[in-house]
Amino acid sequence: MPELPEVETVVRDLRPRLVGRRMGSVICGPKPLRRRWQRAWGRQLPGRRVVSAARRGKWILLGLDDGAVLAFHLGMTGRLQVQPRSTPLPRHTHLRIGLDNDHELRFRDIRRFGAAVRFAHADELEAFFRTARLGPEPFDLTAADWRQRLARTRRCVKAVLLDQRMVAGVGNIYADEALFEARLHPACRARDVSAAAAERLRRAVVTVLRRAIDRRGSSIRDYVGGLGQPGAYQDEFRVYGRVGQPCLRCRAPIARIRLAGRSTHFCPRCQPAGHPGEVPTHHRPMARRRGVKSATVG
DNA sequence: ACAGGATCCTGGGGGC
DNA sequence: TGCCCCCAGGATCCTG
């Protein structure tokens, strides 16, 4: 679930509570975390001091005083929190790292799509991101680079936004919100998007992410920040999760379709299929077998 | 190469 | 109440 704004919020919450702290005992839960975490890593952590807390895409990066980096990905349901050791341990807590102040860093993840990885050096981390071809941060993405990236694919813009190799940190919520902001139909082929629309989209992504960071991210069901508080941006969604409800700009009912395997929300009137030079492709109604209401037919 | 679908997990909600 | 199906802030395989 957590996308860039949620991850950024967690990092900002954790930074003052982790940086300067020394790590103690490490306790792993019985179930593996996408097989990334290696039990042996637990032995390398005690005694190390946290020197930095940062974010790259949807990754949380804790720099240690031996040059190693402890990286966390929250997947769909991951939570990374600093809590007093006395706080009751919730279910699905997979990793606990003691701190030198009666608190501990707890990684909890119901669905276990998340990951924890120890990189021995910053070089290893860089190699990892290179291998994954992790794209640029949205805030660093230049207009020219973005235009070229869009021009090189036949996929629809929604799929492009979700692809971490194209731009890092955007997920399903903010892809939909940014496309609404840019007034672009999510099914538009990326390569057919005009230069003007591409630039609108690039700016919309930045705008929406900044707004969401200001509101400490979106909490729909599982997400909380590094101190356990929910975010508030869900109250400002223009399209995400608003199927059938009136568009806040034009009152037309918000539609939902499935694109790139994900629920996709948009306003059929504000995000028309037929912008000049922007030809939307395939899109099927969400409705499956069981009378699930198809949003497109209010 | 490329795009879509299945898959990994667990839990919640709705329909019957 | 119970069962079954669908759904979910993600990413990675596999297939055609």
What this model shows, in words?
- By secondary structure, the protein is an alpha+beta fold.
- Helices cover 25% and strands 21% of the residues.
- Helix 1 (4-18) runs parallel beside helix 7 (195-214).
- The longest helix is centred in the last third of the chain and has 20 residues, at 195-214.
- The radius of gyration is 20 Å and the shape is globular.
- The two termini are 28 Å apart.
- 43% of the residues are buried.
- The protein binds a DNA duplex (16 and 16 nucleotides) through residues 1-3, 6, 31, 34, 58, 73-78, 92, 109-115, 132, 153-155, 159, 162, 164, 171-174, 217-223, 240, 260-263, 288-292.
Q: Can you summarize this structure?
A:
With 298 residues, this protein is an alpha+beta fold. 25% of the residues lie in helices and 21% in strands.
Radius of gyration: 20 Å
Main sheet characteristics: 4 strands, antiparallel
pLDDT < 50 stretches? 275-298
Please trace the helix and strand order, writing H or E for each element.
HEHEEEEEEEHHHHHEEE
* Adjacency order of strands in the biggest sheet: 1-6-7-5
Amount of beta strand: 15-25%
Mean pLDDT: 90
The residue fraction in helices comes out at 10-25%
The assigned structural class equals alpha+beta
Shape by Cα distribution: globular
Q: Give the number of DSSP strands.
A: 11
Oligomer classification: single chain
Terminal CA distance reads 28 Å
Give the count of helical stretches. 7
